[in-house]
Amino acid sequence: MSTLTPDVIAQLAEHLENAELQAQDVTKITDDYPDMDFQDAYDIQWEIRRRKEQRGHRIVGMKMGLTSWAKMAQMGVEEPCYGFLADYFSCADGAAIDTSKLIHPKVEAEIAFVTKAPLKGPGIHVADVYAATDFVLPAVEIIDSRYRDFKFDIKSVVADNSSSSRFVTGGRCLPVDHMDLRTVGVVMEKNGEIVELSTGAAVLGNPAESVAMLANMLGERGEEIPAGTFIMTGGVTAAVAVEAGDCVTVRYHDLGTLSMRFV
Length: 263
Ligand code: OOG
Ligand code: MG
Description:
The structure is a single chain. With 263 residues, this protein is α+β, with helices and mostly antiparallel strands. It has helices spanning 6-22, 38-54, 69-75, 126-132, 154-159, 207-219; strands at 59-65, 81-86, 90-92, 96-97, 106-115, 133-143, 164-169, 185-190, 193-199, 230-232, 240-241, 247-252, 256-262. It is 25% helix and 29% strand. The strands form two sheets. Strands 1, 2, 3, 5, 6, 7, 10 and 11 form an eight-stranded mixed beta sheet that branches. A hairpin with a 2-residue loop joins strand 8 and strand 9 (193-199). The structure holds 2-oxoadipic acid and magnesium ion (MG). Magnesium ion binds at residues 63, 65, 108, 110, 141, 143, 232, 234-235.
């Protein structure tokens, strides 16, 4: 079901994408459209994706969000969501990330997958994910909600591409059969001090569950995860606010270290 007309979907997509591109916060869209539903919210997100592709941007991955209790508790939203990653979101390990293009960035430590076979829901489970995984690697997401004071509800955040804005990846990649993803330890440091720590099990008990959930959510729209897709599974800890001058390093058991600074 959807409640919004195609015109309103297009208008809200433009509104939210402009907020991203101009780094200007806006009020959450459910204030004006309280009856909008999940389909409307994902329709807006897919329209933002279409707008970017039409301008020549490539989609270089997908992300799941709100998959750990730490994140759900921090945001007051208890349902996972997905988003897409556009080419210009990608930053190299060690990058200087320009905060003037962002509203109020926060960093999240995540475990990422790259697939080697398509995954199409419904009915995808962890064994399917293992079979379709090429390798896993560390990733740090920089989220930047377009909503004032980073306050939203699930439908507003879905429409806003689940706060996606930048990501850093690299480190070391490992085949999934060489590790227990649940016990991968993660230590996040900001300016040399430990600010958060967790393990892979924080994400739905096993980050592979997050990939399965993405396949099943996409399946509801008749979409799939193609082979060769980079997927971030969601923050293993609460997100940490950063500003110009901050340096962040995240150390992962067996998967190496990622660093970035904010300028
Ligand atoms: C929504 C996106 C959450 C994650 O890893 O949990 C997310 C938000 O908290 O703004 O990317
Ligand atoms: Mg995230």
